[in-house]
Amino acid sequence: MAAKLIAPSIEADVIAGYEWILEQLKSSIFPEAENEIEICKAMAYLKKKNIEKSIETLKGFEKKDKLIMARIAIPILAFFTSLRTISRTLKSMRKLP
Predict the structure, then answer these.
(1) Cα-Cα-Cα-Cα dihedral of 16, 46, 39, 72, to 10°?
(2) Which H or E element spans position 59?
(3) Are 78 and 94 in contact (CB under 8 A)?
(4) pLDDT > 90: what percent of the chain?
(5) Phi then psi for 21, rounded to 5 degrees?
(6) Do 76 and 58 touch, CB atoms closer than 8 A?
(7) pTM above 0.70, yes or no
(8) Which among 75, 80, 79, 86 is positioned nearest to 1, based on CA atoms?
(9) Using CA atoms, how far apart are residues 39 and 54, in angstroms rounded to an integer?
(10) pLDDT tens, 21-64?
């Protein structure tokens, strides 16, 4: 998706870039793209190790209808798989002397 390419270049921070894109999409004829950008933003939070903001972003999908939830299920599963991997890595790092 083009947003992944332009978000890091339109703002100093990639998350701010995604927020700018989301703001622009609110007045566009492509509201369905907003969901995909929200997922990208949640993944960006995860990459920055801001797990709380990432989860908060994804929780916004709970209020959306079931069709939207079905379309985003795979990216969310990928997100939680990444989250589980990070959690396991952190636990193993804590065991190191």
Answers:
(1) 180
(2) helix 51-59
(3) no
(4) 5
(5) -60, -45
(6) yes
(7) no
(8) 75
(9) 9
(10) 888 888 888 777 888 888 888 888 888 888 889 888 877 777 77
Residues with Cβ < 8 Å from 24, sequence gap 6 or more?
A: none
Judged on CB neighbours under 10 Å (0-12, 13-18, 19+), 15 is: buried
> Tens digit of pLDDT for each residue in 20-29?
988 888 888 8
Between helix 31-47 and helix 2-10 the angle, nearest 10°, is: 60
Question: Among 39, 49, 57, 35, which Cα is nearest to 86's?
Answer: 49
Q: Within 10 A of 75 (CB to CB), how many other CB atoms are there?
A: 17
